[in-house]
Design brief:
The protein is an alpha/beta fold and about 375 residues long. Helices cover about 50% and strands about 15% of the residues. It has helices at about 5-20, 55-60, 80-90, 105-115, 135-145, 170-175, 205-210, 210-215, 220-230, 255-270, 275-300, 305-325, 340-360; strands spanning about 40-45, 70-75, 90-95, 120-125, 130, 150-155, 155-160, 200, 235-240, 245, 360-365, 365-370. The strands form 3 sheets. A 7-stranded mixed sheet has the order 3-2-1-4-8-6-9, sandwiched between helices. A 3-stranded mixed sheet has the order 5-10-7. A two-stranded antiparallel ribbon has the order 11-12. InterPro entries: Glyco_trans_2-like (IPR001173), Nucleotide-diphossugar_trans (IPR029044).
Length: about 375
């Protein structure tokens, strides 16, 4: 067996082990006693041109067994029928304020919080949807059991409908791993912030930290809000949303997917712990190493090398599939071509670095955001 191929196999195998340490687990919420009582809840939904996506969320809220809540949809200057659809589901529609620092999601959330009647606040992105009729029970129950303080944030389970959406698989894994706390012995690291699509907190803590008003202008509002709570020594708990909350990312098409991930990654990666970032880099490199070992062995037609490199390549496919399935219902067959997924991730990350550090701007939902 040639020495270079042995080195590739060894490095690839070590990278596989690093991957297991990097994404050790993703806790999810457990069922809560349905007789548990909770404070009145205000659900705040910032929405900009979400007419095509907000209905499933509003419908899922109507189906909840827990109904002691109000729904505030903050219309962020939409040019479609977002407000009319929200009203048809009985939601109270607020118009986002215009301020010198600009409008946007953070301003919408802040405006909604100011108008909220609930003791607890639940911020939901308009493209999310509660998975079943007991989702709110389970979400509120965990928050209450952990003291009803700080933030509980969930990363929704990604539902895939079209082939191109599978390209988000590695991004979903890295978003979760990049929070620092899902590695082996992850609690030793400080969380990078909070997940943005689903954030539960109590109103007193929210205004104590300055809430979304403090982070106006932050591109990664979820990370910044979590950090604001951490700065006040308030707990920030992050968990997986499987079985509780789902979303479909970038259904508008491939261009939207590229813009969305480009907006997030170069900035968000700054909050990832250096050790976790190193593990991510090693894990991504391992996919390319396993592919190189397989192609090299096929070229030399060395039987033993083909067998070992083939096993390593398939092990990487299986590990990547298992990681991605913690995050969403990605098509299993796409992971047989895992180098394409990793290559796409790498290309978008490099493009994101270019936009942030060279052009100093990103694009999202028709807006140019300076960074």
């Amino acid at each position: 067996m040639p020495g270079s191929e042995v080195i590739n196999l060894i490095i690839g195998s070590l990278a596989l082990l690093v991957g297991a340490i990097m994404f050790w687990s993703l806790p999810v919420l457990k069922a809560t006693d349905k007789n548990t009582r909770f404070p009145f809840l205000s659900i705040i939904i910032p929405a900009r041109n979400e007419a095509g996506r907000i209905s499933p969320l509003l419908h899922s809220l109507q189906e909840q067994h827990f109904q002691s809540f109000e729904v505030l949809v903050v219309d962020d200057h939409s040019t479609d029928h977002t407000a009319a659809i929200a009203k048809s589901y009985g939601a109270k529609v607020l118009q986002n304020k215009v301020v010198d620092s600009g409008s946007g999601k953070s301003m919408a959330c802040w405006h909604g919080a100011q108008q909220a009647s609930g003791k607890w606040l639940l911020f939901l992105d308009a493209d999310t949807s509660l998975a079943n009729a007991y989702s709110l029970f389970n979400l509120l129950g965990f928050y209450q059991r952990t003291g009803g303080k700080g933030i509980l944030s969930l990363q929704p389970y990604h539902t895939v409908h079209r082939l191109y959406e599978n390209l988000s698989a590695i991004f979903n894994v890295i978003v979760i791993v990049g929070m620092n706390i899902f590695t082996f012995r992850g609690p030793r690291f400080k969380t990078a912030g909070s997940f943005g699509p689903c954030i539960l907190c109590n109103k007193d803590d929210y205004f104590l930290t300055g809430g979304h008003q403090k982070i106006l202008g932050a591109v990664m509002d979820d990370l910044a809000l979590g950090q604001a709570f951490i700065d006040k020594n308030l707990p920030v708990n992050c968990m997986g949303g499987k079985g509780v909350i789902t979303f479909r990312m970038y259904p508008e098409g491939f261009k939207s997917l590229v813009e969305g991930w480009c907006k997030s990654f170069a900035i968000g990666s700054k909050s990832t712990h250096p050790i976790v970032m190193l593990m991510i880099i090693i894990w991504i490199s391992g996919s390319f190493m396993s592919t190189g070992a397989l192609l090299s062995s096929i070229a030399t037609m060395h039987p033993a090398t083909i067998i070992f490199s083939g096993i390593l390549y398939m092990a990487y496919a299986l590990q990547t599939l298992l990681f991605a399935r913690r995050c969403g219902n990605f098509n299993w067959s796409i992971f047989l071509m895992h180098p394409i997924l990793f290559l796409f991730f790498t290309a978008i990350y490099v493009y994101s670095l270019f936009r942030v550090h060279i052009l100093h701007s990103v694009k999202w939902k028709g807006r140019k955001i300076d960074v």
